[in-house]
């Protein structure tokens, strides 16, 4: 009996799998200005806008789950509350900076 790898295993290279994860299921192209719905499906912003055009219920084009809040931009900061996120980011950086420099300045006991 001839063993070996199946044709499907050879066909599914890591590159094609990666590309599949970066494709919009509406236009089947690599995402342009991707948005993430709360059901974790991603789409191009333009595709989602077209899909939702004139509809009252903002549902996922893939699983039809209704999205009650605005979609997220996974590669961009949240647009709705820029102040809070920026402040949190700055506070986190300050804290890490202080911890790092305090630890470095403290005398080391061997």
TrEMBL record:
Q: Does the keyword Transport apply?
A: no
Q: To which species is this protein native? A: Pygocentrus nattereri
Superkingdom, according to UniProt? Eukaryota
Q: Which residues form the RING-type domain?
A: 24-64
| Protein's UniProt name | RING-type E3 ubiquitin transferase
Its main localization is nucleus
Q: What is one GO biological process annotated to this record?
A: double-strand break repair
Q: Which reaction does it catalyse?
A: S-ubiquitinyl-[E2 ubiquitin-conjugating enzyme]-L-cysteine + [acceptor protein]-L-lysine = [E2 ubiquitin-conjugating enzyme]-L-cysteine + N(6)-ubiquitinyl-[acceptor protein]-L-lysine
**GO-annotated molecular function:** nucleosome binding; ubiquitin protein ligase activity; zinc ion binding
Identify the SUPFAM superfamilies for this entry. Answer: RING/U-box
Q: Does the keyword Kinase apply?
A: no
Class of enzymatic activity (EC top level): transferase
